[in-house]
Amino acid sequence: MKGTYCTSLEAFNAWTRRGRPEPGDVIFTREAPAGEACVVPDGIDVCLGQRTVLLKPNKQLLSAQFLVYAIYAGPPHDEITMATQGSTVGHFNVSDIGALTLLLPPRGEQDAIVARIREQTAGLEHTIGRLNREIDLLREYRTRLVADVVTGKLDVRDAARHLHDVPTSGAATEPVDDLDEAELDDEETPA
């Protein structure tokens, strides 16, 4: 799964000694950045890293997905923003997390709210997934292209000779060879 790190069985057993995250639990970050949350998915063994807390909602009273949505858009979001504002590294301790205000409608209403949010955002989720796949393919293509040029599998000398012949419509341009990899990565990062 993208964005995850694997560990050894020994390390996994050590990290989950006090409690093993189960599907439907919620992982909450205490800092860097504070207030990020996700539901533990089915089919993946997860262990917590530093600065994270495992929340085990009473599934009869609280939908895990509703809790995550509430953290991002309800009173907890405002409280997290206020508590971490002006701080270089916002930090929450366990008692801060326990003190967050949570509006708790009946479980059936929570499920209806979650279903409605999913229905309303399905198109966005599809588009985001498609764009992420396209970005991955472009990065893969760039890596392959650079490797082919560096190893000599692709000769770009002829194309490079004609670069100055391409009209620039009066715009100031910077030669590509003056850009380093960090600058290219910065251009890809959304603001």
Q: What's the gist of this structure?
A:
This protein has 191 residues and is mainly α.
- The CATH superfamily title of the largest domain: DNA methylase specificity domains
CATH A-level architecture of the largest domain: Alpha-Beta Complex
Largest sheet: 3 strands, antiparallel
Give the low-confidence spans.
183-191
DSSP summary, beta strand count: 3
Quaternary arrangement of the chains shown? single chain
- In DSSP terms (H or I, runs of 4 or more residues), the helix count works out at 7
Listing every helix as H and every strand as E from the N terminus to the C terminus, the arrangement reads HEEEHHHHHH
Class based on secondary structure composition and strand pairing: mainly alpha
Strand content: 5-15%
Q: What's the arrangement of strands in the largest beta sheet? A: 2-1-3
**Portion of residues in helices?**
40-55%
What is the CATH T-level topology of the largest domain?
Adenine-n6-DNA-methyltransferase TaqI, Chain A, domain 2
| Distance, first to last CA | 25 Å
The average pLDDT value, as a whole number, equals 82
CATH class of the largest domain: Alpha Beta
Which helices and strands occur, and which strands form pairs?
Blueprint: H1 9-15, E1 26-29, E2 37-39, E3 52-55, H2 64-73, H3 75-84, H4 94-98, H5 107-151, H6 157-161, H7 181-188
Antiparallel strand pairs: 1-2, 1-3
Helix pairs in contact: 2-3
Q: What would your notes on this structure say?
A:
With 191 residues, the protein is mainly α. The chain has 2 domains: 95 residues, DNA methylase specificity domains (Adenine-n6-DNA-methyltransferase TaqI, Chain A, domain 2, Alpha-Beta Complex), CATH 3.90.220.20; 60 residues. It contains 7 helices and 3 strands; from the N terminus they run H-E-E-E-H-H-H-H-H-H. A 3-stranded antiparallel beta sheet has the order 2-1-3, covered by helices on one side. The protein starts with 8 loop residues before the first helix and ends with a helix. The C terminus is likely disordered.
